[in-house]
Write a structure and sequence with these properties.
eight-stranded mixed β-sheet; 816 residues; alpha/beta; single chain; two-stranded antiparallel sheet; 8% strand
Amino acid sequence: MSRVALLIGVSRYPTGLDPLPDAQKDVELIKRLLKQPRFQFESVQCLCDRPLQEMQETIELFFKQRRSDDQLVFLFCGYLLPDADGKLYFATPSTKLDDQGAIVKAQTIPASAVLESMNSSPAKQQVFILNRYSPPLLDQSAVAEPMSDLTAPFGGAGRVILAASNVSRPALTPEALDVWTYPRYLAEGIESSAADADDDGIVTAADLHHYAAQKLQVAAPTLQPQLHGSAETAQMPLLEVPNNDPRLHYRKVLETASIAIDVSGAPVLEGLPLLEEMRQRLGVSPQEAEALEAQVLRPTREYRQRVTLYQEQVAEHARSHATDHPQVRQTLKQLQHALYLNDRDVAVMTIAPSLVEHQRQKALYQQVLLWAMQRQSPLGEGDRTMLQRLQQTLHLGDDDTRTIEAQITTQTEQFVADLSEKPESETANTPDAGATSQSSPVSPAPKAFSSSPPPSAAPLPTAVPPSHDDSRASHDDSRASHDDSRAKEAVLQRLFNMNEPVTSPLEPASLAETPLNPVPVREEPLPILPDAKPNLMDRVRRSASNYQALIIPAILLAAIIGLVAAILPSSSRPGWLKFGQTPADPAAAQRLNSEGRRKAQAGDNKAAIADYDQAIEKNPNDVSAYINRGVAHHRLGDTGAAIRDYEQALKLDPKSAVLYSNLSYAYYDRQNYDKALETGNQAVALNGSSAEAHINLANARSKKGDYDSAMRDYAQAIALKPPAPILAGAYNNRGNAQLALNNTRAAIGDYNRAIRRKPDYADAYYNLGLAQQALGNRSGAISNLQKAADLYKAQGKEALQKEAIDRVNGLQQSNV
């Protein structure tokens, strides 16, 4: 048996086809790799930018001059062009297009000729690697085109096709985008042995493809390589690789680590202290570890490069045109395809400039309206006319202006109502849930977010089938159904709850067990008053007749100053334009924030709130202070105050996925599942790589009865590999959704996975017991419910301990 390879790359083309510099680089890389003695290739032929006739002859002889037990590797990197008749042609350095953009076939190699050579070869194991490019003008939808339609003609017995479909990127120079191709990731999987997923020292064609596809799924979400052909050939041994190298073991540990994005937008590995300990234990040098970490982070770094490049182009177009202009949208869509980004990746970036401009226009209208109301309320006819003209000038809709006026009116009335109440009597005895808090360091631009889950809940009530081994089970279960529902009530109050509300960290946050206790539902949150705004209605109302001569100058002055105030950020406004705000003291605010975090970490959330109050006084634009105060209120059970703080923070940072995720959690606790779903969707849209956001969205979907969608979001959260406590909760909550869908065995699998990640997870044991009872496994149910009771007792949760013990007693009595 011999191993032989033929590698063809075409990077240079006549006018009409853009050059493909990556094609030659990929071929040279694979050539150097396969020529290494350890891979035992008898022959590795390489043709780069060679004439048409030489390419045809080499391909024919390569397949013809083989034996039946030879292993063949054939790589082609270049254009594979479809004609109007649907046939395919391999482009050569002399291939060109005519004036109508059609292929001049005489300068191509028909795919049928290559297929004929493959079919006539005696070799029974053929691996065909096709890294196919298409010109954008010929194939605008190549990123979404199913590769099976292209590779189907190359199928055959003993042949496997590894294929990726690319769009050439003439507008992007190599310097602008440093990313890897499908063949490069194949090469990495071979050279590092990382493609050997089962550590048996053997790499198959399927192993190689799955490794490269997994990396590209992160780096280029819409570039979807495909594996076709003979399943048997795909699983046959292709290469032998070392499997006892400590560097390989360390790399596979790195692959399981979570990846976060730091302040600069660069990806970083989490859990570095543990990784450092593992590195030392395996005897991997710091230099080797750094290189391996860079390899693991590369796909995420490539993805960030693509996103950044797209964002820069959006900003460039926004300077001269609105991003919703049809021509701009078309240009950006082509760029999105070339960068292999999906719609969710680019949605927020694309609409952001238009939204920002619209918000500025609304802010200007609001400012002018405020000044008019301060001078005269209700508004006179002249003011109304002026505001209507301003609305037309700013291209605002009637809904926009009505909403602005309604908000001001509501906030004014609420302010007046608040003055007549006695806050001391209402707030003197605020209940303290006693939950300890996490370390919650603050930063204007957080690096990453850590949270630890409270215990989630028992599954939704489901029909329990009668036991197969006890004829009395059905009667007993029916008799106890009322008690069962009452026993589950407290646990069901926490059904699907997962995350602590997330704070905004500056230094690494410790993962502590910080469950939120169930709290009674409070009233809906009050409307949020704007910060540092003058009271609108407590002034002495003067007769409009005293100011008729000043109305028009005042309106014009208000419009001018309002425009300046709307355009300039708060930090850039001159002192006379800050409308009586107390001068900000960011340094003092940061000190108070730090003090609040220390108190919150010690469990004194009330004292922490007092520090956050002062921090906000010192710097009303401190987003992190609002976040931290909202989390402290949330932990004390005051979700109304938490929501007000989160929404105020969103005014300052409207693109914060963390804030939307926290809001989703708070609305969930208030049983406002519509708002929980809405804010959860916004969190995921802003940051699809946040496991917490996916979990909160899934929780809301579950309460709305959409268990299938919830399952997908729980699965996404699990795929993001969050820290073990959160991962355990995600498995547990997915088990709850499985049980709600009567997938009892799948639920049991998820509960067991949760327990493996968090051995003291009492709720997971409780849920596992319920699921086993549903399957008629009484002994297993009793054992796990008893374990849950023991853990509840150790954790000081007497009510839940009693529920578990009552259920154990009921099962034991029914089994007598």
